[in-house]
Amino acid sequence: MVSAPRLTPAELLADLRSDLGRPAALLLVQDLDGVCMELVRDPLQRRLAPAYLHAARRLDGSFCVLTNGEHEGRRGVNRLVEQALPGECHGREGLYLPGLAAGGVQLQDRRGQVRTPGVNAAELAFLAAAPQRLSEGLRPRLARLLPRLSDRELEGEVAAAVHDNPLSPTINLNGLFQRVAGCDPDRRLALALQEQTLDLMETLLAEAERQGLTGSFHLHIAPSVFDGDGREQPVWAGATGLGSTDVQFMLQGAVKEAGLLVLINEHIARHHGSHPLGADFHVRNAPRSIPALLALAQARIPHTLMPRLVGVADTITSRPGPAPGQWQRGGSDRGFLTLLQELGRWFDRPNRVLLIDSSGGEVCRPSLADGSLAGLSDPEDPLHLDALFPGGPPQYRRFFMELTEDLGAAGDGQPA
Prior knowledge:
With about 425 residues, this protein is an alpha/beta fold. The chain is built from 12 helices and 16 strands. The chain has 2 domains: about 10-120 and about 255-405, HAD superfamily/HAD-like (Rossmann fold, 3-Layer(aba) Sandwich), CATH 3.40.50; about 120-165 and about 170-250, no CATH class.
């Protein structure tokens, strides 16, 4: 099959504007980090543009987020909204970003009302204690790998690496990679840091099982590739790059492709009055594979109710496999973008996949600049990218604000 030609941002604007006046007919599903804001080593240093937030409010009813980050907590995106708009009543004015966070387990409306359907008290208690366990486990590992660190430096690196997200405690290696860059030309130390991080996270999984929480959690690696069984595998540091930088300890079922169906279910309920997949449908009781999710949508969602979908993301990967002509593909956004593409084919909708270049921040990522898509896609990739934004988040923000400039404030405050 020959792929359709890619659209320029200007062509994409014209393509989407015909649906803007019909909120029920359009749903833009957008990642956050690396898309509407630049990637940085420390999430506490992220910034959201006030004009972008007001544009998202104008698109209410046709816009939602789908992120592995979180809405709440001190590192949550809600804190960024409040920081960007310090003099405004964010909840009353509906300026929070609606949609799913923590991979799909945290559902928020635009007034900041958050639900975590399918998550139980024992799981929440284990997650609350996890950051301290990770810090205690990381400290001796770093001391062995980086023996020249002073006690003060060691504590600073541990504090920067362990992210105390309420629903997805994370170890982020970007700061450590930056520290060792000059003394690690062959990246052996970076590889050792990755191996020790995965070992620590697997130890935490084993502890959850000993506490009776078998099957409650999984590890999400970013960026990653999928093995033959669809399981995430790390991209190891080596000659071609640093590879995986983050490992998140996440609730089982918290994957973006399942989250996409949850968002569609909520969107249809908002605009048409009923949930085709059931009012209690969430990522934790959703099917686990893309074919099963697609089959569920085909069986339960009427063709007339399916909106046109636009997926906006930055994290897909592709690298040569062990044999000639083989490719190892992955990335935290690949699953939901693939499902979005397949839903468009089945429901006969001109769905669109937008890829944003997130290589321009403080985090090492493959770039779109030369047009080759090296490290991101490949000539046989079944995922078709309808539009590219090599200018990164600034270019996307301009596009997004131009898309919404003719829209007035509207909406009823329900999850979009």
